[in-house]
Design a protein that fits this description.
Helix content: 10-25%
CATH class of one domain: Mainly Beta
Radius of gyration: 26 Å
Distance between the termini: 48 Å
Shape: globular
CATH architecture of one domain: Sandwich
Largest sheet: 5 strands, antiparallel
């Protein structure tokens, strides 16, 4: 008989552990989590044993990995920390073709383990805690990368400049993770390697060793060795107080009118039993609510920001660290628009007119194109959308498939528009692999609204 245990059962998914061998992950379809999206995401999940589409869900089967969560791993030295960050950036660069909200889900710290000395993605997709009421942009991706880097660097004073770099990372306009890798390589060379400006005068016959000695490097190295030695005892003591490595802790926030509902997302993989969940709500660092009830309903009485914390206690009496999120009483409950699932930059949104969702893209003669980034497509590529104009007019739509900045293919179509009516159009092309799509409009007489974008391919290789 199979020994099964449910580790997570929520509105959007159910995770069941089968014996000690594998995890069965059932993800239910909704407006955002579609069969098409999960069929694309499956290619990015390592060690996926089986993927099955059923009527209302997808079932993903993944083997259980045995290792140390990255959040608890302690690298041996500063060099290993930088190598670990570079390996992480290399791994997550493969996710850049997915929608931003799914990238954020896959690149977060909880997904990574150290297995036999190697950084490994656990391959289990958690979507139960997705915030469907939030509009994600690239800053959220960079903030997630910053959090991972901070966890690896921790309080290492020898990596002060790296810590400053990642602290400012969410404010940078970075589109590719390879740029971050190049930046930290420059910092590493500048901070830790011997200067390249040596005495090369012709009359120098024998080079003196002290001319090539980098005092800064030696000082940093000696200080780091001293720091490791003095911290060893306290580090060993602190390890005994850590939460079990096998407990995943998170929570999501839902809003019902003026009430916020805090719903925990706590589960374990190795028979670790959670016996208590403890919530704390603070405003301006002052505790205003403590409770062991879960889910927890909270109605703020004063305007401003609140910090919600969750920690758990396991059967062996160990408490976890606090997991924190913030809310604001003045926040509005935004609905995620379908158009926001695509990586689209530098467009004007029209919140007064929409065919689906709550807004559309407003086009004009000055701003008459849309670029859809991070769209890994190959085979028979199909693009569908709806257009709306105030006038009777004929316009030309030009769609280009882009690969590494070069136009791979181009197609045009004439469309007849009617006043204040949504008119559909569709363009299909056979394509080698492309990474972005550019849509431009010619002969526009007036402004034009663009909405209900659908973009997909059958991923069949082209000879």
């Amino acid at each position: 008989m199979t020994n099964s245990r449910v580790n997570l059962s929520g509105r959007y998914q159910k995770i069941t552990r089968k014996n000690n061998d594998y995890i069965e992950n059932e993800i239910y379809f909704n407006r955002i989590i579609t069969p098409k999206l999960l069929s694309e995401v499956k290619f990015f999940l390592p060690n996926l044993l089986n993927f099955e589409i059923q009527e209302d869900r997808a079932v993903l089967t993944t083997p259980i990995i045995i290792g140390t969560p990255l959040k608890d791993y302690i690298p041996a030295n500063s060099g290993e920390k930088i190598e670990l960050i570079n390996k992480y950036l290399e791994m997550i660069s493969k996710f850049q073709t997915l929608p931003i909200f799914m990238q954020i889900n896959l690149i977060r710290l909880e997904n990574f383990y150290i297995v036999e000395g190697e950084l490994t993605h656990r391959g289990i997709l958690i979507i139960e805690d997705l915030d469907y009421n939030n509009h994600f942009d690239r800053s959220y991706l960079l903030k997630t990368i910053k959090n991972v880097a901070d966890n690896i660097i921790k309080d290492d004073v020898t990596l002060y400049n790296f810590k400053n770099y990642f602290r400012d990372l969410p404010n940078f306009n970075i589109r590719k993770y390879s740029v971050i890798s190049e930046d930290i390589k420059k910092i590493y060379i500048k901070d830790l390697f011997v200067d390249s400006t040596f005495d090369t005068e012709a009359e120098t016959v024998k080079t003196k060793w002290w001319k090539h000695f980098n005092i800064k490097f030696a000082t940093i190295t000696l200080f780091f060795v001293f720091l490791l030695a003095t911290a060893s005892f306290s580090l060993i003591q602190s390890l005994g107080n850590n939460t079990s490595n096998d407990v995943f802790i998170d929570f999501k926030i839902e809003r019902e009118g003026d009430n916020f509902i805090f719903i925990d997302d706590v589960y374990s993989f190795n028979e670790v039993e959670v016996v208590e969940k403890y919530w704390t709500v603070k405003k301006n660092s002052k505790t205003i609510l403590e409770s062991d009830k879960s889910p927890l309903s909270f109605k703020p009485t004063l305007e401003g920001n609140y910090t919600i914390s969750l920690r758990v206690k396991t059967k062996d009496g160990k408490w976890s660290k606090n997991v924190q999120k913030n809310i604001s009483k003045s926040d509005t409950n935004l609905i995620l628009d379908d158009m926001e699932l695509f990586d689209i930059d530098d467009v004007v949104w029209n919140e007064e007119l929409a065919n689906s969702g709550n807004k559309s893209i407003l086009l004009s003669n000055e701003n008459n194109s849309i670029e859809i980034n991070s769209s890994r497509l190959i085979g028979n590529v199909t693009l569908k959308a709806m257009l709306n104009s105030k006038n009777n007019e004929n316009i030309k739509v030009k769609v280009e498939g882009i690969s590494d900045g070069d136009v791979s293919w181009s197609k045009e179509q004439e469309i007849k528009l009617s006043p204040d009516a949504w008119v559909p159009f569709q363009i299909t092309s056979t394509s080698d692999e492309i990474d972005s799509i550019n849509i431009s409009f010619v002969n526009m007489k007036d402004s034009l609204s663009f909405d209900t974008l659908v973009l997909y391919s059958n991923n069949v290789d082209v000879d």
